[in-house]
Amino acid sequence: MRAWISQAGGSSRRRRTSVGGIALAGEGVAPHTKRSPALLLTLSTPMNAASPPPLRSIRDLIRWGASWFNRVGLSFGHGTDNALDEAYHLVLWQLKLPFDLPAAYLDSAVTDDERTAIFELLRRRVETRQPAAYLTGEAWFAGLPFHIDRRALVPRSPLAEALHHRLQPPLTVVPRRILDLCSGCGCIGIAAAYAFEGAEVWLADVDPGAAELARRNVERHRLAERLQVVVGDLYAPLGRHRFDLILANPPYVPTAEWTELAPEYRHEPRLGLDGGDDGLALVARILDGAPAQLDEGGWLICEVGGSQPLFSARWPDIPVEWLSFEHGGDGVFAIERESLAAWIEAGAPLRSDLDGAMLGMSHDIVSGSPRVAARPSR
Hints:
Elements: E1 18-19, E2 22-23, E3 27-28, H1 58-72, H2 83-94, H3 112-128, H4 132-136, E4 138-141, E5 144-147, H5 159-164, E6 177-181, H6 187-195, E7 200-205, H7 208-220, E8 227-231, E9 243-248, H8 255-258, H9 263-266, H10 281-293, E10 294-303, H11 308-314, E11 321-322, E12 332-336, H12 337-345, H13 355-365, E13 371-372
Parallel strand pairs: 6-7, 6-9, 7-8, 9-10
Antiparallel strand pairs: 1-2, 3-4, 4-5, 8-13, 10-12, 11-12
Helix pairs in contact: 1-2, 1-3, 2-3, 10-12, 10-13
């Protein structure tokens, strides 16, 4: 296993961006940027989980939940990387309290009904092994909240940090038209719309269910006038439209490693994770088609995560720049249109027999001609 497998035994499609074990604002399940009060708690052996424990304070319930999570061996990586942060997030979410709650409030008592509801939520996390974001229906990315469910991956890309810095470097000009390719719930494209006010943004995904979820998030953020959701295989639904910037987050986990992922990751759509034999099936097609969709001087920025060594081995001479991240994360490259076109024209070996596998999987999901999803109203 490579970078997406955590040392603690959890598995993740991407490295998570964190400060002190807590997801950055807008990355994963919780929007706080500093170490949570949960990390100040002490672990101990959990009580019998058959019924709600006789615990009264928020602090007690967080500690008890974290002990339960550790005892049963849950995996983390969808916004948190340890049991305390996961329990902290779920308990506060159930109580409808802010994630930056002052530590003094952790000693507040909960009602019997609240305690029962918290227990049920923690029980579901243990018994179903679903990521916390799927249980709450909400995830955070780049400081923004998003609807999330099993139609799309839980947001956790280091591109959140890059967008915070308006993708500088490598960008030197402000993009006017942006494509979020393999958009999932739409978090990257929507965050780009906030980063580049006035830009027109397209969200493209092969899965109609993911596109519908992205539409909900466009509506949630009241960006329908500038964002368009399209459904189809990679560039197929875009026609002759060209862009200044393509942000791509395709599946890039090799198939053999996908089969070994922890149960939490098996709840996510395989189409968003499994990238073929070496994880680069769709990446090759994205590279091949990008020059035709980019305007002169445009950029392709694409995440390949833990498959970066495989990427470099397969295409050792491709003139990409690898982005660096202050808060963790890797495997994101950038390449300008002209450099990519010249490399392809020089005889770049982009295609191989394995690339057809993911194309076939795409057409199993979407049959017929690509279509444009209706824009949501404000």
